[in-house]
Structures are given as structure tokens and as C-alpha cells.
UniProtKB/TrEMBL annotation:
Sequence ranges of Basic residues compositional bias: 104-119
EC identifiers of the protein: 3.1.1.29
Superkingdom field: Bacteria
Official protein name in the record: Aminoacyl-tRNA hydrolase
Record-linked PANTHER family: PEPTIDYL-TRNA HYDROLASE ARFB
GO molecular function annotations of the record: peptidyl-tRNA hydrolase activity
The organism of origin for this protein: Flavobacterium litorale
Keyword terms of this UniProt record: Hydrolase
Chain ranges of the Prokaryotic-type class I peptide chain release factors domain: 16-32
EC class of the enzyme, as a word: hydrolase
Length: 133
């Protein structure tokens, strides 16, 4: 994954932010919406696109577009920086291949310990019963 090529493919849109802030919220478009078309990206290989599509399936639109937004700061520029950092972290996480799980054998000592414990519990319960005549 080449960060500079991916950042060039990002589309940004400035929108009026919601929430408290008085007249500043009504006048200034400080919220930044980032959109990235995953399927048409030229910065990612076919394998990377497939991996990202499966890992980010719940975050993509029906058209395969990833949308992120940020309205944490009053500055549009800072919001843009924050959303780019978020996007890069998200893509790094989506492109990491999980390690294969190696099935392990249960140690014989653990099996013996479990069976011994079961036997002790069983004997304890047997001793609680009244004696038979």
C-alpha cells in the first residue's frame, strides 16, 4: 500500500457541522467528509482490494465507497488531517492478513489433572450419601 498514491485518490467535501457552536456552526463548513472508491482504486492491487473489501464490508456503501467524516475541530484543515490519519489507520488494519491458527494438542498432564479432579468430586459426593445396609 502506497500512502501517497492512496491520498491522491481521496475525495473531500466540506459540510456544515452539526451540534453546538452558535453562529460559527451556521456559517462555516468545517466538517470534512472523505470518500474513497475502493473498487476503482489504482493504488491497491487486486488482492489488497479483495482483502479490504472483505474486512471493511460493513463500512462500505453498495457502490463500494468508503465514507469517513470528522467534525471534531473548528478548523476544516485540522479535520481533514484527522480524517486522513483515521483513514490510513483503517486501511492498514484492513490490509493485514490474520495469522493462521495452529491447532494445539491438549497436554496429557492437563487431561490427567482434569480426570483426577472429576474423580475426587465424584468420591466426595458418594461420601455424602447415607450408608447402605
Amino acid at each position: 500500500m502506497d500512502n501517497t498514491r492512496i491520498i491522491q485518490e481521496l475525495d473531500f467535501k466540506a459540510v456544515r457541522s452539526s451540534g453546538a457552536g452558535g453562529q460559527n456552526v451556521n456559517k462555516v463548513a468545517s466538517k470534512v467528509v472523505l470518500s474513497f472508491n475502493l473498487s476503482d482504486s489504482k493504488a491497491l492491487t487486486a488482492e489488497e482490494k479483495e482483502l479490504a473489501t472483505t474486512n471493511l464490508a460493513n463500512r462500505l456503501t453498495n457502490d463500494g465507497i468508503l465514507l469517513l467524516h470528522c467534525d471534531e475541530d473548528r478548523s476544516q484543515l485540522r479535520n481533514k488531517d484527522i480524517v486522513i490519519k483515521r483513514f490510513l489507520q483503517l486501511m492498514e488494519g484492513a490490509l493485514t492478513v490474520p495469522k493462521e491458527r495452529k491447532p494445539t494438542k491438549i497436554p496429557k498432564a492437563a487431561i490427567k489433572k482434569r480426570l483426577k479432579n472429576k474423580k475426587n468430586v465424584s468420591e466426595k459426593k458418594q461420601l455424602r450419601k447415607p450408608p447402605e445396609h
